[in-house]
């Protein structure tokens, strides 16, 4: 009992000491310059928060319209299943290239290669291209052996390696495009090593490109096989749920543009080449390609009910690296392309405004920056500088409204899981 009493008394003394210290700091005189500076930063953050709220509200309205009028891509664009011609037979199907970039993917290479080789498409109208950047000779040998196994079964599969890793994934995809057989292909599907498309993936996505010459990209939704592995994967699933169900759907429906997710999508080869192909100038090569293709006037289609299985990062290190790449890359790309977007003559002023303001500034910059600065820096600082008053609408009403809009936008994900 004496030990418990002593511990409790120590905690009370520590709390009292901290409270006294904070109170002492609050009572110290502060220069008007410091107060004014903090007040300006606060007002800027509140204005940015309001812009984020308006953007969320706008996307919520568009999604309500999509759900109310059932605006599926099959109704907006022409879609008919492809059938073999009586005279041409399977040659009436377009030639498709399936690229599988990978690097030291020992745990999943068999699943991804097997899923790609099992795609339902005429065998003489498809190339499976395994782009192996593995640095481990053992893994490289296993991947090559797997490719040979499928080749012995009659699958048109190509195992491609290079002597360096310049450009990483973008460099591997760019090198893969240089092979002669690629020139025969009119469409290219891309799947990362941990993605497993269903056999009917091409049968459901390619018709959009065949029947609508203005469409340059068809993007599928990601579905996660390990979403229930831990709390971190569950939180990621909710975040991705909002991204696909709301952000990608809004971009596809209202603007025929969204950021390519880098995998589980099919490009029209001419759209990809016209945009300049893959570039490794940023860590978001997929978004870079999408913006350049969008500026050339190509339309993108997101198909929400076309799903591809994948895995979420289940360790904090992998998650941190992924988020760092996705957070810093868009800002760097925006810096490089802002003037190019503003001076573009091929797209409308409305689309340029959407790209600069909504797609880049609000979603890729404000959404990442204002949350940290406002809630982790400015508001804590006002505790020590009471002259700066934080309005209730900025700390309660707007964050609550944004949270509710996010929840409503992702509500269908929870409904599907039940």
From TrEMBL:
It holds the Pfam family Glyco_trans_2_3. It comes from the Eukaryota. The lineage of its organism: Eukaryota, Viridiplantae, Streptophyta, Embryophyta, Tracheophyta. It is found in: Golgi apparatus membrane. GO terms for biological process: cell wall organization. One of its GO terms (molecular function) is mannan synthase activity. Keywords: Cell wall biogenesis/degradation, Glycosyltransferase, Golgi apparatus, Membrane, Transferase, Transmembrane, Transmembrane helix. Its EC number is 2.4.1.32. Belongs to the glycosyltransferase 2 family. Plant cellulose synthase-like A subfamily. CDD domains: CESA_CaSu_A2. One of its GO terms (cellular component) is Golgi membrane. The chain crosses the membrane at residues 40-66, 354-384, 396-414. The gene is LOC102578162. It is a multi-pass membrane protein. This is glucomannan 4-beta-mannosyltransferase. InterPro entries: Glyco_trans_2-like, Nucleotide-diphossugar_trans. It catalyses: GDP-mannose + (glucomannan)n = GDP + (glucomannan)n+1. Residues 187-385 form the Glycosyltransferase 2-like domain.
